[in-house]
Design brief:
The protein is mostly helical. The protein is 74% helix and 4% strand.
Length: 239
């Protein structure tokens, strides 16, 4: 007999495709974010229409704060990286907080969802590195300062990807379990403090995940540039 996974439940199955609650929640969340972005764009007011309202001010303040964080880490490549990092942050905040809605659970409590996000970051790191430096120049940094270190570089890539997935999953899953346990033990006396704790922890975990992704991307871009510079210096020295 097939056992249901601990962190997700099967909703229905279409042939070999199994749709679990995590998948459905994630797609509904993406649809909600798209509708929110569409509504926000329609309500934008420029200087010609007067001062923006409270909604636009709040949205612009949130976007500017995230943009400043990206520019502090990658000032020269902020325009390239900003769409990915901002999208990742917004999705993670809403995904972590959706567990506050009765009957729903955070997709990030499922290790398969956090693993998918970690793999996305892994691929994006190499994409931005290759896009910025070129394939040969980017791959050269894996052999720096010595080809002997190549296995260690590869192990580091794998372990930090696993750490991203496990860290987010562990924190969100433990947060939901602790909240459930305290509400079950304390009844209606503790929901408000637990609610505040959940919100703070969800924001912190989203920020950490996005910031680590940003740091990894910055490292890929900058190490590729350093490898290219060192190769150019060596060529000039030989000439």
């Amino acid at each position: 007999m097939d056992q249901e996974p601990l962190f997700a439940h099967t909703l229905f199955q279409l042939g070999p495709v199994v749709v679990r609650d995590t998948t459905l929640t994630t797609w509904l969340l993406m649809l909600a974010l798209w509708l929110f972005a569409w509504a926000a764009m329609r309500r934008l007011q420029g200087p010609a229409k007067g001062s923006p309202g409270l909604f636009q001010t709040a949205v612009e303040g949130m976007i500017l704060a995230m943009d400043d964080a990206v520019r502090e880490v990658l000032p020269r490549h902020a325009d390239q990286v900003r769409p990915f990092i901002l999208t990742l942050w917004i999705f993670l905040v809403t995904a972590n907080l959706i567990g506050l809605i009765p009957g729903l659970h955070s997709p990030t409590r499922d290790p398969s969802a956090t693993a998918a996000l970690a793999v996305l970051v892994f691929l994006s790191v190499h994409w931005f590195g290759i896009r910025s430096q070129g394939l040969r120049s980017y791959l050269r940094h894996y052999l720096s300062p010595s080809p002997i270190l190549l296995p260690f570089h590869l192990i580091s890539e794998i372990t930090r990807t696993l750490a991203l997935a496990v860290r987010l999953f562990g924190n969100i899953m433990s947060l939901e379990l602790v909240a459930l346990l305290l509400v079950w033990v304390g009844g209606l006396l503790v929901p408000i403090p637990i609610l505040m704790l959940h919100i703070i922890e969800a924001l912190v975990q989203a920020y950490i995940f996005g910031m680590l992704a940003l740091v990894y991307i910055a490292s890929a871009i900058q190490t590729g540039a350093l490898a290219s510079d060192s190769s150019s210096s060596a060529t000039e020295a030989e000439q």
